Amino acid sequence: MHNKKFIQILVLIGLAYIYLMMGNGIVSLTNPDEVFYLQTAKEMAQQDTWITPYLFGQPQFEKPIFLYWMLRASIGIFGNTPFAARLPAAFIAILGVVAVYLLSLIGFKDDKKAFFSGLVLISCGFYIGLARSVFTDMIFSVFILFALLSFYWGYTYPSRKGAGLILFSVSCALAVLTKGPLGLLIPLLVILAFLFIKKELRFLCCGYSLWGLLVFSAIALPWYILMEAKYGASFNREFFYNDHFVRLIKAEHPGNDTWYFYPMTLIGPMFPWSLYTLIALVYLARGIRRGMDTFTLFLGVWIAAVLLIFQFAHSKLTSYIFPLFPALGLVTADFICSRALFTRSPSRAFYIASLVMTAVILLVPIGLIVALPSYAMYLGSTIPVYALAVALFSLGLFSLVFVLHKRFAGFTFTLFFLLLIILLGAASVSKDVEPYVSSKPAAEYLMKNYPVKGPIICSKFFVRGVRFYTDKEVAAVDIPGTEYFSPHPIPFLNSDSEVREFLGKQPVTYGILKKGNVIDFRRLTENYFKFEILKQIGNEYVVRISSLQ
């Protein structure tokens, strides 16, 4: 039996590598966040420090230190490449799949259901996306998953209580070093609410909790203490006030600041399992009213606690609630296994959802073909798109056959392979897409063909990428516009007069601008400067502005 579980874990790791890591270096680092994180790690290496994050030559405290440690180690071993930059998140994501398998095994006590739980998480669109990106969210969320796995392991097996609480503390500490105090608040709220409902708060009243507190403090606090001692008010203002408190009271993305944002975005990122997740949550709500088994209650509390924490903050992004997605994966897998795969009479809800998903799979390739003429100009060849459409339509036909014959095991595996086919299709057009998501092509063209001496003037969105790919001083322009949510120590120009004053300081200024700023520059340079578009690459315009004097 143990050999079977070991083989299942190895299979999950192999599949996770294919879905979450393989081909991660195909596309260059994208604007604006991927380049931000790796530029910070690169400048830390240039400053020869493992303690203080740097950006634009100055200390920056938008995020804690742990991701930068992983990035520095990765690029030190594998070089300054996109694959090396994306390796930490992908590696941690694979460990997250194993953690979900183990937690499912402990909670559901069914190795088949545990294996399917891993498959659901591997093939979830949002999980794949964050595993293949340079962000803190995957690493942060998996550490929270580790913490809750450790707790539930110790809770379920009394002889493992001490080890479980210590590992819970270690995982929380690493989460705090990855993204801040929420790394402790989220898992602590989950377990306190769970134990309160179970009327077992005394579970934490033991010596192991004190040891856990000491371990947590020893791991999580030294970096914060060092930053406080060295930078004092500037660290507190940026990290605690601007990047934590201000996000509670002010929306970084105002369009998302609605009460229904998280409920509306909770299901879509689980694609292609979205409908099953929605139905699973309905069953979960019913179970709460009627009384449920301990593990399902734990998952319900987990989901509710994360939503509660983030619901009242004005800054909202779907990635903020990513810590609850492992729980969604477990709830979804439980529903599919219990209501279809491991039962002689699949539920009507599952059957209807499967018919709808089959229709979606069949309609997507039709939509691709209809939309292709509008986007063909951006592609070197349309053959990969047609190939993707044929593959998806074929998968849809297989799905239809499986559903009509009620072969739900076959159908669920078609869903599992859906995202893999889409990934392969995306990889085939990645070089065509790259100029629209990365500043590398424009930056390389500029540096290779023109004698850039002074600061490069950039549209706000491109600033980090241009800095990363040129290593030149930069200035941001946004007319009219607002500063970055976390201000950068670079010139920020948001009026005609500021731009003209900046351009007047040097005889020739090169820039990389978006279309809207090109229009602005044509207007504001007229009669003052000579404005030239040197080349358009994707949605970026390489320009030169020369003094008329």
Oligomer description: single chain
Q: Helix segment count?
A: 23
What is the helix content?
A: 55-70%
Termini Cα gap: 83 Å
- List the domain count as a whole number: 5
Backbone shape: globular
Radius of gyration, taken over Cα atoms and rounded to an integer in Å = 25 Å
Strand order of the largest sheet: 5-4-3-6-8-7
- Main pleated-sheet profile: 6 strands, mixed
Query: Structural class, from secondary structure content?
Result: alpha/beta
Strand content: 5-15%
Rounded mean pLDDT is 92
Task: Show unreliable segments.
Answer: none
Number of strands: 8
Describe this structure as you would to a colleague.
This protein has 5 domains: about 1-135, no CATH class; about 140-230, no CATH class; about 250-345, no CATH class; about 365-430; about 440-545. Helix content is about 65%, strand content about 5%. The protein contains 23 helices and 8 strands. The strands form 2 sheets. Strands 5-4-3-6-8-7 form a 6-stranded mixed β-sheet, with helices on both faces. A two-stranded antiparallel ribbon has the order 1-2. A hairpin with a 2-residue loop joins β1 (about 55) and β2 (about 60). It is globular, with a radius of gyration of 25 Å. The model has no long low-confidence stretch (mean pLDDT about 90).
